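Annex B.
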Amino acid sequence: MSDFLDSLFNLKGKVAVVFGGTGELCGAMAEGLAQAGVTTVLVGRSLEKAEARIAKIEASGGSAYFETADLGCKESIGELLQRVIEKSGSVDIVINGAGANSPTPFLEISSEEYDRLFEINTKAVFLACQVFGKYFLDRGEGGSIINVGSMSGVTPLSRVFTYSATKAAVHNLSKNLAREWAPQKIRVNTIVPGFFPAEQNKKVLTEERVAQIMGHTPMKRFGEAKELVGATLLLASDTAGSFVTGTELLVDGGYAAMTI
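SDR family oxidoreductase: predicted structure tokens.
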């Protein structure tokens, strides 16, 4: 059984670039990949957070390092790709998880705020998919792109109007690219966290909001960041996930199954 599982989730020697890897959720996903034998590149803004995550990864025998890039600039992302290739030889897995949220009421959303959220949540994914997608196509060996979506990209949620729109665009882009690149063995999927306490949603998690979420989540609790690891390994593996592309993999405690 052990040999079977090892072959099914054999990720040793792979290299993953994790945008948002210094954050809580993508950091846990990166840590899970590293424990599975993947050299993991944490891309973010905080060296302090990256060093803390890298220390945990290395303590468990994994390998990781930190890189920065301007995610709104295609040239900067391209330079990041070249640095990773120089250091690690290749890239096999890309996770697009950088994100921002805002609880601003709809009629008070400024053009500046609207543009900022689309820049971070949508344009950054679009540009990374262009840069790394071209690399995968040119290399001719396939690859896995995992875009981090949101329950609000599946069903619009109240109080996060612009965020919902940005994530819905990510879901749509992922399906389009999955269809486009499937013949080249490039798999593009969306991992969809339910409600996980994280830095970007602290402002909207009021006492009333938490009660609403718990009332709509059959498991009656928030998710823990480590609970995203299993789904990440499935989507990253070109063995276990070889026929999985264009999917929205929900990790939500049953939230999407709940009506009344």
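The mean pLDDT is 94. The longest helix spans residues 111-139. Further annotation is deferred to the next reporting cycle.
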